[in-house]
Design goal:
UDP-n-acetylglucosamine1-carboxyvinyl-transferase, Chain, 4-stranded mixed beta sheet, single chain, alpha/beta, 2 domains, binds ligand EPZ, about 30% helix, 14 helices
Length: about 425
């Protein structure tokens, strides 16, 4: 298992190219299962989660091919990815095996496309993960409302459709608010159902919007995406298309915070600040300035960071996927901050590791109280989940001395060539291959 060695203290200065969104790419790749012909996706990042989805689509009868990187003139920084082709060859395959689903619970996003286009799906129950339980009851309930029958056998979800799914008006919200992948699953299944479906309490995330926009290019009739009420008029078939996925807003937020923590100045290319207004709002209160110039963000910060209070919310609120990175930043604020996690109340595995680096964080249920300190100390720490690992990288960039982060495969799931991008703007980071 690889590790990162980081020597803290360097100010980050220069340009970073933001990759395409992992959380848009995964459901969009799954939606390609529904389209006849060869779809071509641009901007899909090279990540281990994407590799897992490629493998899953291969087992579901698709031919997946990644083209070499488009050789665009490039300043410093890694060459990113080439287009990804997905062609449906065999529609008889409908099983997502445990070996794949257990490594990536987002595999659940093939459920709606399979039921909508093939009428059958066998998916290993996605277990929990480091950030807590990951139930799929809302997915099942929404798909049952469309007429799918489900049973659980030997840890597998088996879904079947007698005849054709039928559209209906449904409420899809849960105790913690809307479900992103649940909304997308129901939207995909409804796209080829008979009649109209209205999803009330739908997730509004940009990744839901991007998936709906891709499906409309394929011939679907979806409207209201980005609002809590999505309307889908069922059609008989969907045709392969070409699409560029939206920029990764979580990676963007991570690099904005990296610039602020190192008191550096970064230009972030190919990103969309409109997807991060809640993050911009809270970071401006900390003292971070984000100026936009077309598709580029210019980040700088005051030397003194102000403490703040924040609660994670469904979009457009402050995203849970930026909670750990914000916590790393607030470790250096001038006073006491409070973060409350409303989406995944257990999402605090980074607290213990940050405290090992000299942070003063106290967890009380779904709330963390962060007492700012003058500096963090380098230490050996353990990555646990994707975003917690990113928080440890951020802390290592500013800690005094060397930080070793073990199990960085967690980071490789969601950040494309992160160490190369950081080195290109002055970070002292290296990957140690075990
Ligand atoms: C997506 O997960 C993202 N993953 C997550 O990002 C993100 O944290 C999450 O949305 C919330 O924004 C992908 O898009 C691949 P949910 P998803 O269903 O769709 C509860 C990352 O770091 N719930 O919106 O699986 C659930 O427990 C990952 O990139 C049910 O109760 O999340 C949670 O409390 C981590 N029943 C809340 O809803 C269900 O059937 C929101 O979960 C489904 C969800």
């Amino acid at each position: 298992m690889d590790s990162f060695l980081i020597r803290g203290g360097n100010r980050l200065k220069g340009r970073v190219e933001i990759s395409g969104s992992k959380n848009a790419s995964l459901p969009i790749m799954a939606a390609c299962l529904m389209a006849r012909g060869r779809s071509r996706l641009h901007g899909v990042p090279r990540l281990s989660d994407i590799d897992s989805m490629n493998k899953l689509l291969g087992e579901l009868g698709c031919h997946v091919y990644r083209h070499p990187p488009e050789d665009s003139p490039r300043e410093k920084g890694p060459v990113l990815n080439g287009p990804l082709d997905i062609e449906v060859m065999d529609e008889s395959r409908c099983e997502a095996r445990y070996e794949i689903v257990s490594t990536m619970r987002a595999s659940i996003c093939v459920l709606g496309p399979l039921l909508g286009s093939r009428g059958r799906a066998i998916i290993s129950m996605p277990g929990g993960c480091a950030i807590g339980d990951r139930p799929v009851d809302l997915h099942i309930r929404g798909l049952q409302r469309l007429g799918a029958d489900f049973r659980i056998e030997s840890g597998n979800i088996i879904g079947e459709v007698r005849g054709r799914l039928k559209g209906c008006r449904m409420y899809l919200g849960g105790a913690q608010g809307p479900t992103v992948l649940g909304t997308i699953n129901v939207m995909c299944a409804a796209a080829m159902a008979e009649g109209e479906t209205v999803i009330v309490g739908a997730a509004c995330e940009p990744e839901v919007v991007d998936t709906a926009n891709l499906m409309n290019k394929m011939g679907a009739k979806i409207s209201g995406q980005g609002t809590p009420e999505i309307r889908i008029e069922g059609v008989d078939k969907l045709i392969a298309t070409e699409h560029r996925v939206i920029p990764d807003r979580i990676e963007t937020a991570t690099f904005i915070i990296a610039a602020a923590m190192t008191n550096g100045e970064l230009e972030l290319k190919h990103c969309n600040l409109d997807h991060l207004l809640a993050v911009e709002d809270r970071l401006s209160e900390v003292g971070i300035r984000v100026e936009r110039e077309n598709g580029t963000l210019r980040v700088s910060s005051a030397r003194r960071l102000n403490p703040i209070e924040t609660t994670t919310q469904p979009y457009p609120g402050f995203p849970t996927d930026v909670q750990a990175q914000l916590m790393a930043l607030l470790c250096l604020a001038d006073g006491m901050s409070v973060i409350t996690e409303r989406i995944f109340p257990d999402r605090f595995l980074h607290v213990g590791e940050l405290n090992r680096m000299g942070a003063k964080i106290r967890k009380e249920g779904a709330t963390a109280v962060i007492q700012g300190v003058k500096e963090l100390q380098g230490a050996t720490v353990m990555a646990s989940d994707l975003r917690a690992s990113a928080a440890l990288v951020l802390a290592g960039l500013v800690a005094r001395g060397q930080t070793r982060i073990n199990r960085v495969y967690h980071i490789d799931r969601g950040y494309e060539k992160i160490e190369e991008k950081l080195i290109a703007v002055g970070a002292d980071i290296q990957r140690v291959r075990e």
